[in-house]
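Q: What would this complex look like in 3D?
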Amino acid sequence: MPSERPTSRDVARLAGVSRTTVSLVLNNVPDVHISPETRQRVLEAAQQLGYYPDASARRLVRGKTHTIALVWHRGPDRLYRDAFLPGLLQGLTGAARQYGYHVLFRPIEADEPDDAYVELARGRHTDGLILSGPRSDDDALIHLYQDQFPLVLHGQLPETDIPSVDVDNVQGAGAAVEHLLRLGHRRIGMITNAPLAYTASQQRLEGYRRALEGWGLPYDDTLVRYGNFDEESGLRAMESLLALDPPPTAVFVASDMVAIGALRALREHNLRVPEGIALVGFDNIAAARFITPALTTVHVPAFGLGWAAAELLIRLIEGDRPAETQVRLETELIVRESCGAKHSV
Amino acid sequence: MPSERPTSRDVARLAGVSRTTVSLVLNNVPDVHISPETRQRVLEAAQQLGYYPDASARRLVRGKTHTIALVWHRGPDRLYRDAFLPGLLQGLTGAARQYGYHVLFRPIEADEPDDAYVELARGRHTDGLILSGPRSDDDALIHLYQDQFPLVLHGQLPETDIPSVDVDNVQGAGAAVEHLLRLGHRRIGMITNAPLAYTASQQRLEGYRRALEGWGLPYDDTLVRYGNFDEESGLRAMESLLALDPPPTAVFVASDMVAIGALRALREHNLRVPEGIALVGFDNIAAARFITPALTTVHVPAFGLGWAAAELLIRLIEGDRPAETQVRLETELIVRESCGAKHSV
DNA sequence: CTGAAAGCGCTTACAG
DNA sequence: CTGAAAGCGCTTACAG
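A: Here is my prediction, written as structure tokens for the whole assembly.
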């Protein structure tokens, strides 16, 4: 930038007013009467000089950055979560824009301490934080919360009441299994998305269990296997399920990525989907509609989650205590080919 | 945050020194001798109070934000570019972190003016800008460049020498077609990724032409069709190519998304891939390895592009004139099933 | 309706 | 080796 960057002083001089007036006019401060002529002169002077108020000075004097940050922890579920990043960011920036906020993106890499984001908050780089992939042993997080720093979790941290935004996993899984039940399946297996240490994993399993019980079917854990985010884990889990006698006629795989691995196992066993065995996934990743057969799955609204997280956070920042700080969004069952509904219904 | 947020004054008081000394110690200013005892006292005081320097004050006094921004224009190629966002951001933040910079993400939505990002620069919210999806009729961009505001384009804008980072499209397309030639194909069609108004599209077509000519084959535009980012366009383009007599034995589709549409057209015509017709894509989107047949394609290094863009931009910001401001990264051919190499070689 | 002054919380010449 | 002072560029009570 040219060093002759204009300041409010230059605008004041050119318009023949004080800096106070310049600020009042440019910020459109209400309840202050300034003659239309003066107002006009200031606006023209600013325009003519190409004046833009300096953000750093404004931040300092106002004590606000008008910025929120998305903290993105790189866990073992990294690739899995990456699939949601574009949608999440779009929702997040959409809401932020509506309130006049900027968005900082801050990944925490594997070689950084988990609480490397703290400086962002304590050093006042941002007015609030959205944390994706938080860990329950994160003391720094608890401290920030205790210090009333505005915080929203993407996902859930059991045993805290930190504001959070997530999908209703129980409902989503329930809808998937319900769908298979309606199609006539009675021996339905499940492969989880991840180990049970992950809350989402527990909840999806719970949805499976409840759907079964809702239809008067017993929950049978010999029909359950544990995935671990990736295809490989899905392949193995499905192999193991196929070793059952009889094998299930349908399987709910609580992750599309894992389902893709499961699909490969089925192909290797020359089992056709959905004729030989029906499959329903979870997440609705971009690839779900392109694979063969196209995957019936549970859509996770990344955009909506991003929007809700940003909106909740900004409310907290601006001090209007929202009635509900635990936001749970509904999922949507997307029926494609792998469940067999297209043929049997 | 509690209102009793400590300032450098508090640290100075507790350590029994001046604010100058606090600043000198905390910033580790070189060539200034401060007794180890004093240094220690300051550090302890800061620690004890939980002191973090205020970012806004620092920015103001230093005249630097230590922030770079990624401007993400929502064009018709939005979904296409979204596929690269996670990788791009990871590379970008990786380099930024190495230099101590933060990253602002700023999408420009369809209902905003194309130059809505200007305030970010002029208002000093950021020290530099990376623009993804720039348009050649963007006057504001030219003005910023003329005013020496640090700028890097992701992609290319012909007829300017604005620093930019991109993939070598000619080389990438050439490698794809070369691969088909080696497999024995002599009648090779092409479907572009987008209309020729897009530089990348022109360049990929150029790579196709050169590869053909390198093997002494004539460039024949009756074998070329134009895609438009999405599957639908690929489906139509392939239909049109199949109407040829004889149809090509192989097609280079300069976009995986478009290739997925082309694949569908082939399926509808009961043409097996690669036996009936061979296909090579471009981009290596996440879905490429999951579709059937797995797509042979040209990998675009999103991470590397992000890293290079951030590094180049930060160099420009910090004033060390880089030797090369037009960075072109190499692509990599990923051989999977759709080209037939696995069978014929 | 408008202006002079203080102050946000730092850093950095400049003295001593 | 350390401190008092100025200043970054704004906004905002407070007078007039």
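A: To summarize the key features: The interface with chain B takes residues 1-2, 50, 52-57, 59-60, 65, 67, 82-83, 85-86, 89-90, 93-94, 97, 102-107, 109, 119, 121-125, 147-149, 260, 285-287, 290-292 of chain A (CB under 8 Å). The two ends of chain A are 65 Å apart (CA to CA).
Q: Very helpful, thank you.
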